[in-house]
Amino acid sequence: MSTETTSNESFNDSHVLDPAATAVSQESISAEIGENHAAYQKSLAAGVKAETQPRLDFAPYRSSLLRHPTKNLHHVDPETIELYSPAFGERDVHTLESDLTIQHNGEPIGERIVVAGRVLDGDGRPVAGQLIEVWQANAAGRYIHKRDQHPAPIDPNFTGVGRAITGKNGEYSFTTIKPAPYPWKNHHNAWRPAHIHFSLFGTDFTQRMITQMYFPGDPLFSLDPIYQAITDAEARNRLVATYDHSITSHEWATGYNWDIVLTGSNRTWMEDEEGDH
């Protein structure tokens, strides 16, 4: 990734609001979220099955209206791409790649944390050998990417990406810096709760699932249309990690536990691959 800017996306102009982003207030977005959730609760009372995944078309999340499929999906034979896609295995992923705090010459700024958990199937069985990639903003809420031009500092000692392979019991662990909230252009004064993106691969690159992990007690939860696009409260709660003092290290890092369930009624919410927030 690059920190270069373009003539249309200069850092000096990054505080200037996009007119399209100022057209709708947070109050309007929150009202739309409330209407959607109220309608969902009525459908539950009428016997409709609970929604464990986000709606592809969720009006308060503006870009979902442009991204979701509008035509019937068709099955395709993935054999060709599977033959030519890169292969990976335990020898391709080094243990140190799961520590996002040692990738540069100095210490990154911010609260050091450890995020650990297990990847499980719908019956609670561990999924071993699963490739997990993570990416996130830094402690100031800034990504190392040319599209991120909001006026927050870049940490030269923190890139914000890492990867690991789950162990025999489905376990994983990442050492990183706790990310901060950041603004996005869904509506006026829109801020995303602090989160870490997770990408999980199966046996090849055509088997990819993407989700986000959040931190407990974030005051932005109720205001965020991406998080609230999951209309079922229990499904939303499964995206929030738990502070775990047994993972916390003395004078080193606080710890969070977060398990990822791939299938079944308690599966972890997965997003469209094109999502970038």
Automatic annotation (TrEMBL):
It holds the Pfam family Dioxygenase_C. Keywords: Dioxygenase, Oxidoreductase. It comes from the Bacteria. InterPro entries: Intradiol_dOase_C, Intradiol_dOase_core, Intradiol_RC_Dioxygenase, PCDO_beta_N, Protocat_dOase_b. Residues 115-143 form the Intradiol ring-cleavage dioxygenases domain. GO terms for biological process: 3,4-dihydroxybenzoate catabolic process. Its EC number is 1.13.11.3. The keyword Oxidoreductase applies. The keyword Oxidoreductase applies. GO terms for molecular function: ferric iron binding; protocatechuate 3,4-dioxygenase activity. PANTHER family: DIOXYGENASE, PUTATIVE (AFU_ORTHOLOGUE AFUA_2G02910)-RELATED, INTRADIOL RING-CLEAVAGE DIOXYGENASES DOMAIN-CONTAINING PROTEIN. Belongs to the intradiol ring-cleavage dioxygenase family. This is Protocatechuate 3,4-dioxygenase subunit beta. It comes from Paeniglutamicibacter gangotriensis.
